[in-house]
Write a structure and sequence with these properties.
The complex is a heterodimer of chains A (273) and B (411). Chain A contains twelve helices and one strand. Chain A is mostly helical and 273 residues long. In chain A, 37% of the residues are buried. The mean pLDDT of chain A is 86. Chain B has two domains: 241 residues, P-loop containing nucleotide triphosphate hydrolases (Rossmann fold, 3-Layer(aba) Sandwich), CATH 3.40.50.300; 147 residues, Distorted Sandwich (Coagulation Factor XIII, Chain A, domain 1), CATH 2.70.50.60. Chain B is elongated, with a radius of gyration of 25 Å. The chains are: A mainly alpha (273), B alpha/beta (411). Chains A and B meet through strand 1, helix 2, helix 5, helix 7 and helix 12 of A and strand 1, helix 1, helix 2, strand 4 and helix 3 of B. Strand 1 of chain A pairs antiparallel with strand 4 of chain B.
Chain lengths: 273, 411
């Protein structure tokens, strides 16, 4: 017989069986947000694609006219676009996951379900937007007449997406927990994201930095690893796993940290919101 | 028979941070000494123990703030108890509000599925009941219309209909019958009756005593977080009404009231509370007028007396002191019986119980006065729970509710 026990909050427990029971809610929440997003903005789809495209044009212009400071091993627009779409996945994942708890406070206060569903479904929206931007990416690859092997390309892309969405889920969970407790945390977000953008090798190559220790620190950024893995499918260089492994480890760390913090505070959310 | 619901000495503590909301800002936490600021503890529930067998329908009654909603939130796992434990055997659906998670941009059909899944139904179960849900709500022609175009009544009907077609073993319901028009209320009451007859275990929180009498097989009276009485429906409701009426039908007889100060040269013998229709009542709503009628008797001729009326909230915090002289009023040449009233227009207190204290004293000269009759917490009034614009107002929203004039100066 289904049922449950009522007891004071424990510090740690990840109830996978319960999560599985609530899988339909997870998909419905994601479906709702995607539907509402693409319904409300008339040009929802175009809007999502336009953001990285416009940035790509701007940075391409800057790169060729103003600040050509390094060399990249593929056409620069493609280089920039590949970085920008992963940046988009990470940043929109982080911001929608961290805002999701406040946005859904009315449901959280009235119905029980594993709270993790809310930020997790927010990541799905970011992934959905990412898929849209991917269409342009494929068109560009055809335009530049590159022929990456299908298996290699999709395989590496998948790994990059996993790293990026994992990291954005982890960071999103940490920030979501913090925002519930401290409401003014929201105002730190734009600054945090902007800094993050310029510290990530999105529009410049990591090889820009010759100092080995600095490069090591910068490659702790999961986004650095994800982007370089994805790009190596297009250039004919082999994946630099030695560097990428730092980013992957960081992702795993962020995920564990995020889940731990979120779970630890989960029982308080309905009282705090 | 194994009980479906079994809870043992459940308690729930909330912290009410003084002068601030429950959550903090980072700045406040980081700024010095904020952690030393006193936090007020508040026990919403204390040592609640009970169990229910399959098929029972329990009514939960009590004044606002007695812990009714907190109990439902703990039973439905929305919040955790501070102490105590319990066991629920069976699938639970909780209905603390109708239309939880409705999204105005989505169509009626989409919202039926979304709301159903949020309430814990499987998609298959919604498919199976879809026709009946639509028919009960009477929105067949508007299924593909975004519900932002629905009327309030349609919205409420749709929401209740989804909830009523849940088929859980245990149903937890909070005041949901108060939505919709009279016709729909009758229909939903009948539906609830069906549910409880068909062997569901129901916990039903309500202020509507008629509905509790009609639906429930047992009843629990909560007062200040504790079970004051549990047992047969009529017995518990009667004791609630008499316990409540004594303080709260809007009048109190003070002739034999023993806890008072003063020389009793003037005696306060009755207080009545009246609303804008001049009806006696202990229950008020936002924007009502509240008139406090004081009946006094002076046993010797006095040139003048001064009257002070104070309002405290249920925790004893003073909200206001009203001196008759503040309003330029004074009662002169009193002897024998007198009837004085003061009217508060458009009251803006948030839901909860408020106590009124009255002092009758002499004129104040050089900070000195004679006390004639002072009675603390002579009478109480309740501000009812209420929906305002887009939310349900609760004590958490503060003490006062204001609707200031807003202006946009950018145009």
């Amino acid at each position: 017989m289904p049922g449950y026990e009522i007891k004071p909050a424990k510090w740690l427990s990840l109830d996978l069986k319960e999560l599985w029971q609530y899988r339909e809610l997870f998909w419905f929440m994601a479906w709702r947000d995607i539907k509402v997003k693409y319904k409300q903005t008339l040009l929802g789809f175009i809007w999502v694609i336009l953001q990285p495209l416009v940035l790509m044009f701007i940075f391409s212009l800057l790169w060729t006219r103003v600040m050509k400071v390094g060399t990249v091993d593929m056409p620069y627009p493609l280089f920039a676009y590949s970085g920008l779409i992963f940046w988009g996945l990470l940043s929109s994942g982080i911001s929608s996951a961290s805002e999701s708890m406040l946005a859904n406070s009315n449901i959280i206060k009235k119905v029980y379900f594993p709270r993790i569903i809310i930020p997790a479904s927010a990541i799905i929206i970011a992934l959905f937007d990412f898929l849209m931007t991917l269409i342009v990416y494929l068109i560009m690859i055809f335009y530049y007449d590159l022929e990456p092997g299908f298996l290699k390309f999709t395989g590496l892309l998948l790994i990059s997406v996993l790293i990026t969405s994992g990291a954005s889920f982890g960071i999103g969970l940490i920030i979501a927990s913090a925002t519930i407790k401290y409401r003014d945390f929201r105002y730190v977000m734009p600054f945090f994201l902007q800094t993050f953008f310029f510290l990530s090798p999105v529009v410049y190559p990591l090889s820009l930095f010759s100092s080995e220790p600095l490069r090591l620190i910068l490659s702790l950024n999961p986004l650095a690893g994800a982007i370089s893995i994805c790009r190596s499918a297009l250039s004919n260089n082999a994946v630099d796993w030695n560097t990428a492994v730092y980013g992957i480890m960081m992702t795993i760390f962020l995920l564990i940290a995020g889940l731990t913090i979120f779970r630890r505070m989960e029982s308080q959310y309905s009282d705090l919101l | 028979m194994t009980p479906v619901i079994e809870v043992e000495s459940i308690s729930k503590k909330y912290f009410i941070a003084q002068n601030s909301a429950y959550y903090k800002t980072l700045r406040e936490s980081l700024s010095s000494f904020s952690f030393l600021k006193s936090k007020k503890e508040f026990w919403a529930l204390r040592d609640v123990t009970f169990s229910m067998n399959p098929g029972e329908t329990m009514g939960v009654i009590g004044v606002n703030g007695a812990g009714k909603t907190t109990l439902l939130k703990i039973l439905s796992k929305i919040t955790r108890p501070t102490h105590g434990k319990g066991k629920i055997n069976g699938r639970v659906a909780s209905l603390l509000e109708v239309g939880t998670g409705f999204h105005p941009e989505l169509t009626g059909k989409e919202n039926i599925y979304l709301n159903g899944v949020i309430l814990g139904l499987k998609k298959k179960e919604i498919d199976k009941n879809f026709e009946r849900i639509v028919e009960f709500a009477g929105v067949k022609d508007f299924l593909n219309t975004p519900i932002k175009h629905y009327s309030t009544g349609m919205w409420a009907r749709l929401a209740f209909s989804v909830a009523a077609h849940l088929e859980p073993e245990i149903l937890l319901i909070d005041e949901v019958l108060s939505v919709g028009d009279a016709e729909f209320q009758k229909k939903s009451l009948a539906k609830m009756n069906d549910l409880s007859r068909s062997g569901r275990t129901v916990v039903f929180v309500s202020h509507n005593m008629a509905a509790v009498r009609q639906l429930c097989t047992r009843c629990m009276l909560l007062s200040e977080g504790k079970i004051k009485k549990i047992g047969g429906v009529n017995e518990v409701i009667d004791s609630y009404l008499s316990f409540n009426e004594r303080e709260n039908n809007g009048t109190v007889d003070l002739i034999n009231h023993s806890v008072r100060k003063g020389s009793l040269k003037v005696k306060l013998y009755k207080i009545e509370l009246r609303n804008q229709n001049d009806q006696m009542s202990g229950i008020f709503y936002l924007k009502d007028d509240l008139s406090i009628h004081l009946f006094l008797e002076a046993f010797e001729p006095l040139r003048s007396v001064k009257i002070v009326v104070e309002i405290n909230d249920s925790s004893g915090e003073r909200i206001c002191s009203m001196y008759d002289s503040d309003s330029g009023f004074s009662l002169k040449n009193v002897f024998g019986k007198a009837h004085v009233s003061l009217a508060l227009k458009d009251i803006r207190f948030c839901p909860g119980r408020y106590n009124i204290s009255v002092s009758v004293i002499s004129e104040i000269l050089n900070y000195k006065y004679d006390s004639y009759d002072e009675i603390e917490n002579a009478i109480a009034f309740d501000m009812e729970n209420q929906i305002v614009s887009d939310r349900a107002l609760t004590r958490r929203d503060g003490l006062m509710f204001f609707t200031p004039d807003w202006h946009n100066h950018n145009q």
